[in-house]
Specification:
single chain, mainly beta, Porin, 7% helix, elongated
Length: 252
């Protein structure tokens, strides 16, 4: 599934960059949304080569804190092509959080202080905190594909109700806050990975240029952040439910 999303994102972005810039006219839009994320359990690897540490906690749970300030939010700006009105391109930013549930007992394997480590233990006996709470911030180039419904030639020629799907690809910037072996690390904002997303949604135009929408998205990245004397790594697989307002500016 993840490989399919990556391939679709790369192919869609390549198509937009190579084949469509000659279309000068289009229907511009701006989306703003709030939402909630659900990050799947993932292995948490801590690697501190200088200290002789390289161990992995299995199936660590994460909470999202989507409604904690700054809450989950995002924006997308783009346009649909005039000639191919079913096809669009956009630039999207969204902010989510992940915080490991370190009070849970999880299996752990690897080395600690150069010695073998295995068995089950509370995560916080070694890793007291692993969080990216000032944001796992995605910035993606999106390709969008829509299907119009409830069309009327004058007011809603592209459909009052629009079903759409899409894919996106781009960098992630994060702000990790960690404490490993009771040593705190908060290096500030850093590039933490390359993210991909797939999404499906529906938008409904209340007025000719103003509407609402709801969307489901799935995002993935191999998240790597700085911890004291090393790195922490997580396979971030997240489900998102979002909703917001959309503004359409007509042809330009």
């Amino acid at each position: 599934m993840l490989r399919s999303i990556r391939v679709a994102a790369l192919l869609s972005v390549a198509l937009l960059l190579l084949g469509l810039p000659s279309q000068a006219r289009g229907e511009a839009f701006l989306d703003a949304f709030l939402g909630k994320s659900f990050t799947q359990d993932s292995d948490l690897r801590i690697k501190q080569s200088r200290l002789g540490n390289d161990y992995t906690f299995e199936d660590v749970s994460f909470r999202d804190d989507s409604f904690t300030n700054p809450q989950y939010y995002g924006v997308r700006a783009g346009y649909f092509f005039e000639r191919y009105s079913w096809l669009g391109v956009g630039v999207e930013f969204f902010h989510m959080k992940i915080t490991a549930e370190t009070s849970d007992v999880r299996p752990v394997e690897g080395t600690r202080n150069g010695a073998a480590l295995s068995g089950g233990t509370k995560v916080n006996s070694i890793v007291q905190r692993f969080a990216v709470t000032h944001g796992v911030n995605y910035l993606t180039l999106d390709a969008l594909f829509r299907y119009p419904l409830l069309q009327s030639p004058e007011r809603f020629p592209k459909g009052r109700l629009q079903l759409y799907t899409g894919v996106g690809l781009g960098p992630e910037r994060g702000h990790p806050e960690t404490r490993v072996e009771n040593v705190r690390s908060e290096p500030g904002y850093e590039l933490v990975g390359l993210g991909v997303q797939g999404f499906v949604g529906a938008r409904f135009l209340i007025l000719k240029n103003l509407g609402v929408f709801t969307e489901y998205k799935f995002s993935h990245s191999a998240l790597e952040v700085t911890v004291s004397s090393g790195q922490g790594r997580v396979q971030e697989n997240t489900h998102h439910i979002v909703g917001g307002i959309t503004i359409h500016f007509g042809s330009f």
